[in-house]
Design a protein that fits this description.
Pfam families: GDP_Man_Dehyd. This is NAD-dependent epimerase/dehydratase family protein. 39% of the residues lie in helices and 15% in strands. By secondary structure, the chain is α/β, with parallel strands linked by helices. Strand 2, helix 2 and strand 3 form a beta-alpha-beta unit.
C-alpha cells in the first residue's frame, strides 16, 4: 500500500485518535487512519464522525506489533502521529507484559517503519505519568522521570527509543507529553465521564480518592496541539508538555459538575475504586511554556466549558438505542 503525502494516525479509533482524525480532515489533510483489526470490523470512536467527513479518510486495519503491516501503511506519508497504546494503569499492574509488547515493541516498529519510509515527522505521544509525583508545583520538561506504574514505565521506554532513533538515524521525532485529556467519546471508565455518568443517573456518587489533582485539557485542544506538532516547522525532539497549567482535584471536578447540573452531589467512598498508593500520583500540573513558545498553541476551552460540552454529549449518548456507548465506570 503506497500513498503520497499526508498524515498517518495510529490508534485512530481511540478517544484522542478520533478527535485528531476529525481535526486533520477538517484541515483538508490527506489522512490515513490506522485501526487495530478485530473480527467485528469496528471503527471505534470514529463512528461518531460525520460520515461525509470520514469518507475522505483512508481507513486501514493493522497492528503496531506487526512491523510488516506498519511498513505498508506508513509508506509515502509525510507525518505519523503515534497514539496506539495500552493505557489503563490498573490493568498494567495485572498484565505488564502486554504493555511492553504494545507500547515498547510497537513503538520500535513505528519508528523503524518511519525510518525506512523516510517519513518527515514522527510525533510520539507519551504521557505526564512518566513524571510520577511532582517535585515542583508545575512540572516542566526537566523534571525527573519517575514512573510509578508499568504503563508509565513503558512510556519512558518508548520515549527512549524515539530519542535513540532521532539521534542515531536522524529520524525527525517529536515527543509530546499530554497531561489528562477529557471530552466527548472518552470511555466512562475515565474520571470525568465517571462522575458525569453517575450524576446523570441521579444517584449519589461512588468514587475512590478525591484528593489527586490533574491538569485537564479538552480533547479538541489536545488534537489541535498534536496536529500542530505534526505539521509545524522543525520544532525538534522536545519533549513537550501538553496541558493548561491549571490542576484541580477530583473533588473539584465533582463540584463543577454539580454546579453545571444545578444540584449538590453527594459522594460515598468506594474502597474498590481506590488505586494502590504505590501507583497513584498525587498531583500533575503542566508547565506548557516550551510548547507554547515553539508553536503558539494554547488551549481554547476552559475546564468548565469542556465539562459542560461533555455533559451534553453524555446526555445524547444515553438517549441512543444502538448500545454504542459503554457504561462501565473507572476506579478513581
Amino acid at each position: 500500500m503506497s500513498r503520497t503525502g499526508g498524515i498517518v494516525v495510529t490508534g485512530a479509533g481511540g478517544f484522542i485518535g478520533s478527535h485528531l482524525a476529525e481535526a486533520a480532515l477538517a484541515a483538508g489533510l490527506s489522512t490515513t487512519l490506522m485501526l487495530r483489526y478485530s473480527s467485528q470490523g469496528g471503527i471505534g470512536n470514529l463512528v461518531d464522525l460525520d460520515p461525509d467527513t470520514l469518507s475522505r479518510a483512508d481507513m486501514v486495519w493493522g497492528d503496531i506489533t506487526d512491523g510488516r503491516s506498519l511498513a505498508r501503511i506508513i509508506e509515502g506519508a509525510d507525518a505519523v502521529v503515534h497514539l496506539a497504546a495500552l493505557i489503563g494503569i490498573p490493568y498494567s499492574l495485572a498484565a505488564p507484559e502486554s504493555y511492553v509488547a504494545t507500547n515498547v515493541t510497537g513503538t520500535l516498529n513505528v519508528l523503524e517503519a518511519a525510518r525506512l519510509a523516510g517519513v518527515g515527522r514522527v510525533v510520539l505521544v507519551s504521557t505526564s505519568e512518566v513524571y510520577g509525583d511532582a517535585e515542583t508545583a508545575a512540572i516542566d520538561e526537566t523534571h525527573p522521570l519517575k514512573p510509578q506504574s508499568p504503563y508509565a514505565a513503558t512510556k519512558v521506554a518508548a520515549e527512549a527509543l524515539g530519542r535513540a532513533w532521532h539521534q542515531s538515524f536522524d529520524l525527525p521525532v517529536t515527543i509530546i507529553r499530554p497531561f489528562n485529556t477529557f471530552g466527548p467519546r472518552q470511555s466512562r471508565r475515565a474520571v470525568i465521564p465517571t462522575i458525569i455518568a453517575q450524576a446523570l443517573r441521579g444517584d449519589g456518587l461512588r468514587l475512590g480518592s478525591l484528593w489527586p489533582q490533574r491538569d485537564f485539557t479538552y480533547a479538541a485542544d489536545t488534537a489541535a496541539a498534536l496536529l500542530t506538532a505534526a505539521t509545524a516547522g522543525d520544532i525538534g525532539l522536545g519533549p513537550y508538555n501538553l496541558g493548561t497549567g491549571r490542576s484541580v482535584s477530583v473533588a473539584d471536578v465533582v463540584e463543577i459538575v454539580g454546579q453545571i447540573l444545578g444540584r449538590r452531589l453527594e459522594v460515598e467512598t468506594d474502597p474498590e475504586r481506590i488505586r494502590p498508593a504505590s501507583g497513584e500520583v498525587d498531583r500533575l500540573t503542566a508547565d506548557n511554556r516550551r510548547f507554547r513558545e515553539a508553536t503558539g498553541w494554547g488551549p481554547r476551552l476552559s475546564l468548565e466549558e469542556g465539562i459542560a460540552r461533555t455533559i451534553d454529549q453524555l446526555r445524547r449518548d444515553d438517549g441512543r438505542s444502538d448500545g454504542h456507548r459503554r457504561t462501565d465506570d473507572y476506579r478513581v
